[in-house]
Amino acid sequence: MRILRIPIPHLLLLINILLLVPTTRGQQSSEQLASQYFQNKEYDKATELYQTLYTQTSNKFYYQMLCQCYVQQHLWREAEQLVKKRQKRTPNDLSLYVHLATLYNEQGEKKKANKTLNEALTRITANKSQVQELASELIQNGYLEHAEKAYLEVRKKTNNPFLYLAELANLYDKMGRYDLMMNEFFNLLDQSPSSMGSIQLSLQHILSETSNPQLTSQLRTIIMERLDEQPNRKEYLEMMIWYSIQQKDFAFALTQAQAVSRRFPDMGSDWVLRVASIAEHNDDLPTALSGYEYITRRGKDDPHYLTARVGALNVMYTQINQHHAVASDRLDHLKNEYETAFIELGKIPQTVPLMRNYAHLLAYESNELQQAVDLLYDIIEMRRLPQNTIDETKLELGDLLLFAGEVWDASLLYSQVEKAEKETILGAQAKYSNARLSYFNHDFLWAKSQLDVLRASTSKLIANDAMKLSLLISDNMEEDSTFTMLERYAHADLLLYRGLLDSAWVAFDDIDKHSLSHPILDEVLMQKAHIRMRQGQYAEADSLLKKLIDFYGDDILADDALFTRAELNEQQLHNYAVAQQCYEQLLLNYPSSLYTDRARRRYEQLKRKNAS
After folding, report:
1. Neighbours of 66 (CB within 10 A)
2. What are the distances in angstroms from CA 14 to CA 3, 6, 18, 25, 26?
3. What angle (nearest 5°) sits at the alpha carbon of residue 219, between those of residues 266 and 607?
4. Which ranges constitute the DSSP H helices of 58-94?
5. Number of helices (H) and strands (E), helices first, in the chain?
6. Helix axes 444-454 and 425-440, enclosed angle (nearest 10)
7. Dihedrals φ, ψ of 28, to 5°?
8. CA distance 547 to 524
9. Residue 308: which of 239, 243, 261 has the closest Cα?
C-alpha cells in the first residue's frame, strides 16, 4: 500500500481551510437567519445574532444592521455606544458622525446633532474619498447644507475651486438653489468642455421637471452674461443654441448657429444644418428655409451642400402644398428651382424625393400631367433603386392617374404594391388607396370592409384615415340601407381630389342647400372650406370652419376644423389672437387628438409672441 505524503506547508494550509469552512458556513447561516428576523420585525432576536457576527468580524454591514436593530427598539444608549466605539476603531470614517447626529435627531436633540455634524466638518482633510463618503451620507440623510459645506471645505483646503463641480450642481438642484446650480454647471463646462452633453441632459431634465419660469429666465441670463464676458467662447454659443431650441425659439437659435459657423470655420455649417432640420420638424418653415439657404450660399464645397439643397426645396414644396392658393410667380420660381437642381445634381437615387415632389407639383398645382407621369416613370425605371422606393413611387403614380381620371390604371398599380408589400406599412397604404378608390366608385360596403381591417394598422396615420373614411360610410347610410346622399358626396369628393374646384364647389353646395339635417353636412362644410382655401378666399374659408366648430363640436371633424382654422388665421389671415384661441380650445377639448403635439408647440410660440 502506497502512503500519500503531503509537504508540511501544504498540510497546514489544508488544515486551516478545513477549519475555516464550518465557520464560514456558520456565518452565512447566522446572517440569513438574522436577516429573516429583521424582515419579520423580530428585532430582539436579530440583535443577538448581529452582535455575535459583528464581534467576530467587525464587518461594516453587520455594524449597520446592528445599529438599525437598536434604533428600531429605541435602544438609543446602546446605539450611541456602538457608533462611538466604531469611531475609536476607525477615526477617519467621518460618515460615523452622520450616524451619531441622526441618532440625536431621532431623540429630538437638535443642537447636539448639529454640533456633531459641525465636528465632522472640522475633521475634513484633503482625502477626496473620505469627503465623498461623508457627503454621500449627509445627502442620504437629508443634511444638504452640511453636504454643501463639506464640498466647499475641501475646495478651500486643496485650493482647487474646480473640485466636485458636478456633485455640487446636483446638490444645488436638490436644494432648489438654481442660480448656484447653473454656476457650477458652467464652471464644469469651463473646466471640461466634453461634459457639455451630460450638462445639457441634466438641465433638460430639470427644466422639464420644474415648471418655475424663473428657472428658465435664470438660465438665459447666465448664458448671456458668460457670452458678454467671452463672446468668442464656442461652448457658450453652443449652449445658447441649445437653450433656444429648448424654448422653441428657432429663429434665435439659427442666428447663434450662423455666428458659430462664421467664427469657427472648423465646425463648418454643422450647427446651422442641425437647427434648420429641427425647425423644419417643428413646422417653423421660414426659419428652416433660411438655414438651408445659408448653407447653399456657402457654395458646393460645403459638405452639407447637397443636404441643404434638398432641404430647401422640400421646405418650399411643403409651404406650397398646404391646400392654400399659390401665386403663379411663386409656383414658377419653385419649378425653376427644381429644374436647376436636377441640372446641378442629376436625377439620381439621392434626388428621388425631389423628383417625386416635383411630379406632385407639376400634376396637382400646374396641371402638367404628362410631364409628371414621365418623371415618376423615370424613377421606377432607375437602376439599383430599393424595391420599396419603387413601390412608393408606384403608389404616387397611382394617385396621379386617379387624379387624371384613369381609375382602372390607378387600381392596377395599387394592387401591385399591395401584393408586393404584404405585412408592411406601404402595403397597408396601398390597401387604403384601393379602398378609397372603391369609395369613389360608390362600392361602399366593399370599401368599408377593407377599411375596417386597416383600422388595426401599425401606422397610426393610416389607421386614423381608415377610421375616418369607414365612419363616413357607416354614419351616412340611409335608413333604407341605401347611400343616395353618400353617392353625391363621393362624386363631389372625387371632383375635389381631381382639382376640379369649381365643379366640386357646386356639387358640395348643392348637398348643403338641399340636405339641411343630414349627418354628412359637417363633412361638406370641411370640404367647402378646403376649396375656398385653395382658391385664396380665406375669409370665407374661416367662416365655414367656424360654422363647423359651432354646430358640430361633438363630431369627429371638430379637432380637424379647429387646427385648420388656427393655421389659417396664423399663416394667412395673420389674426394671431384667434389662432391662439383655436389652439387652446383644441388642447382643452380634444386632448387625444392627433394634432395635440403640434397645437401645443404653436400655442406656446404664439403665447410668447403675443406677450412680447
Report:
1. 24
2. 18, 10, 6, 17, 19
3. 105
4. 60-72, 76-89
5. 32, 0
6. 160
7. -60, -45
8. 11
9. 261
pTM (two decimals): 0.64
Q: What is the DSSP string of 107-165?
A: TT-HHHHHHHHHHHHHT--S-HHHHHHHHHHHHHTT-HHHHHHHHHHHHHHHT-TTTTH
96-104 contact pairs (CB < 8 A, 24+): 97/123, 97/134, 98/134, 98/137, 98/138, 98/141, 98/143, 99/67, 99/137, 101/141, 101/143, 102/141, 103/71, 103/76, 103/79
Question: Taking a C-beta distance cutoff of 8 angstroms, is the pair 299, 265 a contact?
Answer: no
SS (H, E, C) 530-584: HHHHHCCCHHHHHHHHHHHHHHCCCCCCHHHHHHHHHHHHHHCCCCHHHHHHHHH
Structural domains in the chain, CATH included, are 476-611 (1.25.40.10)
Span between the terminal Cα atoms of the chain, in Å: 104
Cα separation of 354 and 314, whole Å?
Answer: 7
pLDDT score for 11: 44
- Whether 349 has a pLDDT exceeding 70, the answer reads yes
User: What is the identity of the amino acid at 497?
Assistant: Y
- Per-residue HEC secondary structure of 233-277 comes to CHHHHHHHHHHHHHCCCHHHHHHHHHHHHHHCHHHCCHHHHHHHH
Q: What 3-state class would DSSP assign to 383?
A: coil
For residue 211, the model assigns a pLDDT of: 65
Radius of gyration of the chain (CA): 36
Cell 353646395 locates to: 509
297-311 core/surface letters (b: 16 or more CB in 10 A; e: else)? ebeeebebbbbbbbb
Inter-axis angle of helices 213-229 and 196-209, to 10 degrees?
A: 150
- For residues 81-97, give the mean pLDDT: 87
Side-chain half-sphere of 519: how many Cα atoms within 13 Å? 15
Got the DSSP string for 502-531? HHHHHHHHHHHHH-TT-TTHHHHHHHHHHH
CA gap 278, 224 in Å, rounded: 23
Q: Mean pLDDT lowest for which of 167-171, 442-446, 489-493, 556-560?
A: 167-171
**Quick check: helix, strand or coil at residue 454?**
helix
Using alpha carbons only, give the angle 274, 288, 231 rounded to the nearest 5 degrees: 55
Distances (CA, A) of 108 to 76, 111, 142, 428: 12, 9, 16, 69
